[in-house]
Amino acid sequence: MKIGYTTQASLLLAAGLLFSGDAAAQYYPSGVQQNVPEATVTGGGWSVCHQSTFDESGTSLATIQADCDKELTMMACRPVGDPNFTLVAAAPRTDVFFDTGTGDVPHNANGVGWYYNDNWSWGYAPQGEPINRDSCDFFPGTVEDLRMCIHTGGGTTNSGYRCGNNNLNGAAGWERVILEADATVNLTVPGSNSPRLIAEELIIPPNRTLTNTGNLDIVTTIEYAFS
């Protein structure tokens, strides 16, 4: 296929390809996922906002929330140095930090049963699966490998507890990683009124011909009015 131009024309590049700042999340998994490459996550718009090993205690949960303040939050875990996350799960930030108290009724969001309390535990299981928190979820027998939990107490993280079916109390060789991402495109640079670059024009001089070799696919959804 050839597209010929007899007058000057322009092609608007797909919005999102030329962000000058943080991009919206392109990788947003539903449910609990296993063995996800870190490159898939970070390449999909996520950045690390907290990272610590499972033997560590005393990090303020208020500080974690302040550092992880974007619209989407992801909880992940893995052996230290592994290029893949053993588990990942993501949801809107308000759902991940929704206070469920100390009971066994999770808060469901994006295919995940979340629970959080800054004096009991913080974690998840697949949506619909029962949990048993004391203080972390140790429900035996069902999808043990799809559960993550961090002990909490006094408003801080405590040592342990699990990444999948691994008991990680005092485990310096495993880490818990919290990541964040924007859910939508921000049309201004954060902290200013300066516009954010989201697209550019490709100017095609007269009488030029573009040849489609199978890669000339420009697809975008426009949800903004420009003037």
Low-confidence sequence ranges: 1-22
Radius of gyration: 22 Å
Count every beta strand, where a strand is a DSSP E run of 2 or more residues.
Answer: 15
How would you classify the helix and strand content by structural class?
A: mainly beta
The number of helices is 3
Overall helicity: under 10%
Gross morphology: globular
Q: Which strand order does the major sheet show?
A: 7-8-9-10-11-12
Could you tell me the strand content as a percent range?
35-45%
Q: State the distance separating the first and last CA atoms.
A: 33 Å
SSE sequence, one letter per element: EEEHEHEEHEEEEEEEEE
Q: What's the mean pLDDT score?
A: 82
Instruction: Characterize the main sheet.
Output: 6 strands, antiparallel
What's this model, at a glance?
With 227 residues, this protein is mainly β. The longest helix is centred in the first third of the chain and has 7 residues.
Task: Explain what you see.
With 227 residues, this protein is mainly beta. The protein is built from three helices and 15 strands. The strands form four sheets. A six-stranded antiparallel β-sheet has the order 7-8-9-10-11-12, with no helix packed on it. A five-stranded antiparallel β-sheet has the order 3-6-5-13-4. A two-stranded antiparallel ribbon has the order 1-15. The two termini are 33 Å apart.
